[in-house]
Design a protein that fits this description.
429 residues; Growth Hormone, Chain: A
Length: 429
């Protein structure tokens, strides 16, 4: 039995409510993250450097890696609808505090703790939305629904970030830099409050947990389930290799984001004109968003023609070539081309690999494996940011970083994904 089309999924009476809740929240995520980037990297009184940007990535992802293993057990004990409602309300309150701190220009421990709390709550929300999705759609449409939820979310984060940079440019005409950033965060807090109300469109137990899930959950299971996920991947080499390849691609992509931020902030525009740098970042984000959307749309066509394994190889090979565009000339146009190509190949690879993992892992271990997947990807993102930060100059111009990223992708394609190792079962799908 074929699954629903993308249009059919959008019109699904129950699933559409979950999509609206997820995507509106992620659009607000993009708005919030743009305000943070502006405050940390684009304030006139602070010159951006690679280490400060890498630290920002680490702060954003730390809650995902530490809290991730335990989130599932929480969501199996309480109504997920109620968890989404109160988590969004809590996040709105937390951002109100962040807004006050930024308004006062405070960027010390108190701001770091408040931001960590915001992203920790976000991890709970995204996990709750993912856990509830299979209860709203038939099994034949699950992979398409997952791909649509994740890709749509990525696009809305980018759009929210672009809107944030645009609003920031308007705000700074009548506010100083810190106050403009604080206003953006206040807008995000209001957005999260509205998103919390959207959770009321779901019934209390509509997205679980089911009775058998509730009875099995315990807070001590987090580490045990992570260990089970690792052990299962050791026995399922193809899924493990696909996850590692995706993590490496995401780590390299983060290094390129760092390059883009520094180029826009310190090279393409005067260092005393950070608003122009913000505009450049907004353009790059928009182009990357188009690449994400195109990569997701092309993936089903490529998989249908070449199979999942071969398509993943093609996308990793493409990823290894896309950063090299920046070696032709360090200019905005080459940065935008690299942003599109890297996002295109990266999203197509991830969507395809997600489907591969879902198809190869049985239901009992799927949550455990995806918890490991999250932690590995987040670790790779932080590693990519830190390694690039140790090499990159303040200008962001570094042929060495570009060559290292390309070499890492090429090595992954040639070793980890070579046919004799990847697709050991000989399947074409």
């Amino acid at each position: 039995m074929p699954g629903l089309s993308f249009l059919g999924l959008l019109r699904h009476p129950r699933l559409s409510r979950l999509f609206l809740l997820r995507w509106s929240g992620q659009a607000v995520d993009g708005l919030f993250q743009s305000a943070l980037a502006s405050f940390i990297l684009f304030s006139p009184e602070r010159q951006a450097n690679a280490l400060s940007a890498a630290l920002a990535f680490a702060v954003v992802l730390l809650p995902y890696s530490i809290i991730g293993p335990f989130v599932g057990t929480v969501l199996d004990r309480v109504s997920r609808q109620r968890a989404l409602l109160f988590a969004n309300l809590l996040r709105a309150g937390d951002l109100l505090l962040v807004s006050i701190l930024i308004f006062q220009g405070r960027n010390g421990v108190e701001l770091t703790v408040a931001v960590l709390a915001a992203f920790g709550i976000n991890r709970l929300i995204l996990a709750g939305l993912s856990a509830g999705l299979p209860l709203l759609v038939d099994p034949h449409s699950l992979i398409s629904a997952n791909a649509m939820a994740v890709t749509g979310g990525s696009i809305w984060v980018v759009l929210g970030g672009g809107a944030g940079f645009g609003l920031r440019k308007i705000d700074e005409t009548f506010l100083n830099a810190n106050h403009a950033d604080a206003l953006l965060v206040l807008m995000a807090a209001t957005g999260y409050f509205i998103v919390s109300l959207l959770a009321l469109r779901l019934k209390r137990n509509e997205i679980g947990p089911l009775d058998h899930e509730r009875s099995e959950a315990s807070f001590g299971q987090g580490i045990k389930e992570m260990r089970e996920g690792f052990n299962f991947l050791l026995k399922n080499k193809d899924a493990a290799r696909g996850i590692c390849a995706t993590a490496i691609q995401r780590g390299g992509l983060t290094s390129l984001v760092l390059v883009a931020l520094l180029l826009e902030r310190n090279t393409f525009h005067p260092t005393n004109d950070p608003s122009s740098g913000l505009s450049g970042v907004a353009v790059a984000l928009s182009i990357a968003g188009v690449g994400i959307m195109c990569g997701a749309l092309v993936a089903p066509i490529g998989v249908d023609r070449y199979g999942r394994y071969q398509w993943i190889r093609f996308m990793m090979a493409g990823s290894s070539l896309s950063p090299l565009v920046l070696l032709l000339a360090v200019a905005p146009v080459t940065l935008y081309i690299a942003a599109f190509l890297t996002s295109f190949f990266g999203q197509s690879l991830k969507v395809t690999n997600d489907a591969l993992v879902q198809a190869r892992i049985n239901d009992y271990y799927r949550g455990r494996v995806f918890a490991v997947y999250d932690v590995l990807v987040n670790a790779a993102i932080v590693t990519g940011a830190v390694l690039a930060a140790l090499i990159l100059p303040v200008s962001g111009e570094s042929a060495l970083v570009i060559l290292l990223i390309s070499a890492a992708f090429l090595l992954t394609f040639a070793t980890l994904l070579r046919p004799s190792r990847f697709n050991s079962a000989g399947s074409t799908n």
